Amino acid sequence: MRILIAEDDIDLNKIMVKKLGAEGYAVDSCFDGKTALDYLETAQYDAAVLDIMMPEMDGLQTVRELRRKNNLTPVIFLTARDTVADKVQGLDMGANDYLVKPFSFDELTARLRAMTRTSVKNATNQYAIADLTLDTETHRVCRGGKEIKLTAREFALLEYLLRNKGKVLSRQKIEDNIWNFDYDGGTNVVDVYITYLRKKIDDGYDSRLIHTVRGVGYLLKENV
C-alpha cells in the first residue's frame, strides 16, 4: 500500500516512515496539513495517517477540505487528545479511525490493514487466487501449500495485484502505488519486479497467474 504520513514531530515522523517502509509500504511524509493536502490531491494513496495538531492547516481542517473535494482516501488521526468529544469531532469531520498517542506501532499497522480490508471489501487479512494465498498480517505467501519467500517490494507488488485481481493495471498505476515520490529508479522498474515475481509464483506451476496485456500493463487472473 501507498501511505501518507503527516506528523510535525520530526522524530516520530521518521520512525513511522522507517517502520512502515520496512513492512513494505511505499511511504511519503510531510510535516504540515497544507502540504499533506497537496500530496493527497496529487497522488492516489491507500491511507493517510494525520496528526491533528499541525502547522499551516491542522488535521481536522485537512480532512474537512479533503472530503469537501470528494476525496475518500481513508484517514487515521493521530492525537494526544483522548476525550470522547475529541474522537467524535475527528470522526464527524471525515476520519475513518482515531489513534491516541503514545500508540503501539503494531496497532497502527493493524488499523491500516483493517481499513484496507474495508476499502476492497475483503473480510480477512488473507487474499487468494487459485492456489496462491497472501496474508498481510503474517507476510506469508504460499502457492499449492508451499511457502514462497518474497522481498518487501515483491510482497507489496503481489498484494497490490491481488487486491486488484481481474483488473488490468498499467505500469504507471503499479509504480504510483508501490513506489513513493522519492524513488528515482529506471523506467522499466515495474517490468523488472514483475519478472522477479513471476519466477517465484509462476515458474514450475501448470498455470500462470500473472498475465501481460500488451501495450497496457499486467493482470492477475486464474486460467480457466
List keywords for this structure.
224 residues; alpha/beta; Rossmann fold; Arc Repressor Mutant, subunit A; 2 domains; five-stranded parallel β-sheet; four-stranded antiparallel β-sheet; 8 helices; 12 strands; 41% helix
Structure, briefly:
It is built from eight helices and twelve strands.
What features would you describe in this structure?
- The structure is a single chain.
- With 224 residues, the protein is α/β, with parallel strands linked by helices.
- The protein folds into two domains: 2-119, Rossmann fold (3-Layer(aba) Sandwich), CATH 3.40.50; 126-220, Orthogonal Bundle (Arc Repressor Mutant, subunit A).
- 41% of the residues lie in helices and 22% in strands.
- The protein has helices at residues 10-22, 33-42, 59-68, 84-93, 105-119, 152-163, 171-178, 189-201, and strands spanning 2-6, 26-30, 47-51, 75-79, 97-100, 126-129, 132-135, 140-143, 146-148, 168-170, 210-213, 217-220.
- The strands form three sheets. The chain has a five-stranded parallel beta sheet with strand order 2-1-3-4-5, with helices on both faces. It has a four-stranded antiparallel beta sheet with strand order 6-7-8-9, covered by helices on one side.
- The radius of gyration is 18 Å and the shape is elongated.
- The two termini are 29 Å apart.
